[in-house]
User: Fold this.
Amino acid sequence: MKHGTVLKYIDFDETIHHSWRQLPDRGIHPDKRGEMAFDSMDQRRIMGHFATGVTVVTTWHENKPHGMTANAVASLSLDPPLVLVSVDVKAQMNGCLKASDCFAVNILTVEQEALSVRFARHGPKDFSGIAYRTEATGSPVLDLALAFVDCKVTNVLPGGDHDIFIGEIVAGGSREGRPLVFYGGQYGSLSS
Assistant:
């Protein structure tokens, strides 16, 4: 039996594409617990079709600012006002967030793609040349961000190879502009 799917997608330049992909037959691949495991590369490819905004999550720890690019961010609740951020357990930022008990989510504009790339790299992040201020928690709020929420951590939940940081919003703001978007492993923007 032939397995496949027809994909229809629109590029950032509004070009419509159709492609037919032959999907490989998948055998059962048990994980460490003996349960069926879904291929992580397939998950990455599939979830890459979910367009997201791009943020830089920041905190203040050991007398200096820390940050990371994140798109695994969501508004969780309106009452109380909560957001969540998913952070790799091996990332330096994970320990910083646990120690600081606060973070800011800075939503980037299309003009801030280079900033996203800068904070997506492994290792310590350099804040030189970046204008920022602090609000309620002391976490850095990027001056040119499209929007931000400043949060105190209320809970940390395990989520496989990530921890899910739940933050209660204690301050926030926004301005006019176009958001930076991530789709299919590439940056883009929304057309007007």
Notes: The chain has two domains: 4-47, 52-189. Residues 12 and 188 are 6 Å apart (CA to CA). Residues 1-23 have pLDDT under 50 and may be disordered.
